[in-house]
Structures are given as C-alpha cells and as structure tokens.
Amino acid sequence: MAASPEQSPEPEPESEPGLELELEQRVRAIVAEHRDSRGALLPVLHAVKEELGYVDPSVIPVLAGELNLSRADVYGVITFYEDFRQSPPGRTTVRICRAEACRAVGAGALADRVRSRLGVSFGETTPDGAVTLDQVFCLGNCATGPAVEVDGRLHGRVTPERLDALLASVPQEADA
Ligand code: FES
User: Fold this and answer.
1) Which GO terms describe its molecular function (predicted)?
2) 49 sits in which H/E element
3) Which residues contact 174 (CB under 8 A, 6 or more apart)?
4) Which residues line ligand 1 (CB under 6 A)?
5) How remote is the CA of residue 35 from the centroid of ligand 1, in Å?
C-alpha cells in the first residue's frame, strides 16, 4: 500500500559511494532542473556537460537512480553521442569538420595533418592537457570549408598552413 505524503516524507537519496559529495549534489540539482523535460536524460546530460565540461562516468549511478533508468541505459546514451566526453577536455579544443562539403575541399588532409601534429586521434587530449581534438560533422560553415573551430571560434577555408598557424597559437602552458 502506498504511503501518503504526510506519513512518509520523501527520503534523502543515498549518497553514491566513491562520488564526491559536491559533484553528486551538483548533478542532482541539474536533474531536478530538467526532470520534467521530455526525454529528460539528454537535456540532463547536456546540462552536466555544460557545467562540468564532460560527463564523468562516476555520475552514471546518480543519473540512473534519479531518472529511473538502468545504468546501462545511461551509459549507452553517453557512449552513443560523441558529444558526451567522459574525461575533462584539454585547455583548448580543436574541432575539425569532416562532413561531405568540407571533405570535398580538403578536410581529409587537414584531419590527417592535425592528428599527426598533435599526436592524438579524434576524441583524445594531448598528454600535456593542452589540446583536445574532436571531429564534427558540419559546423554550419559549408560554403567556406574546410571548417575548423578552435575554442568555439570558427575558421573557414583553412589551408594546411593556416591550420599550422592555428595550432601554433594554442597556449601550451597551463597558466598561459
Ligand atoms: S560540411 Fe563542414 S561546415 Fe558544413
């Protein structure tokens, strides 16, 4: 038999072992804000990413519990969308468009070049934490490709030389 709200105040959720309390509280607050959104998991994940910069896998049990989903469901969504990075990004994020219009004007060569220059693949961060390299499939700049975005700033008609210049302008020091 269901208890009435007067008889049984809602219990505090149990803390997740191994998860920092502050992080857990921030994630629960984000869920509370978006709980009523349609298909709440995606808006919640976007909000977590927006606030923390990434979706730490340690928050999966909290999200699953709060949204009444299985951990596997939450994990599946996080891993399906490249957008939901699971580790902190580098100090600078470089995104290369690899969609068709940009590919037709040289994005493939840029992709090879940037991976070789940075020594990382897409989705990875350089060991010094300076740069995270991502691929995207359209930056909305198709008429002036190849398109590259550096920390949210869009660059069009990027030649290999311009790419090198963009990479050279990335601060290398943590406090730069
Ligand atoms: S295809 Fe590259 S910006 Fe659209």
Assistant:
1) 2 iron, 2 sulfur cluster binding; metal ion binding; oxidoreductase activity
2) helix 41-52
3) 91, 129
4) 97, 99, 101-102, 138-142, 145, 147
5) 34
Q: What is the mean pLDDT of the segment spanning 119-126?
A: 93
Region of poorest pLDDT, from 11-20, 38-47, 73-82, 86-95? 11-20
Q: Would you give the distance in Å from CA 108 to the centre of its chain?
A: 23
Amino acid residing at 176: A
Higher per-residue confidence, 17 vs 94: 94
The CATH homologous superfamily of the domain defined by 92-168: Glutaredoxin (3.40.30.10)
**β-sheet with 153-155: strand ranges across:** 124-125, 131-136, 92-97, 148-150, 153-155
Q: How far apart are CA 157 and CA 67, in angstroms?
A: 44
Provide φ and ψ at 136, rounded to 5°.
-135, 165
Question: To 10 degrees, the CA torsion angle through 131, 132, 136, 139?
Answer: -40
| Domain definitions of the chain by residue range | 21-80, 92-168
CA angle 152, 91, 113 (to 5 degrees): 70
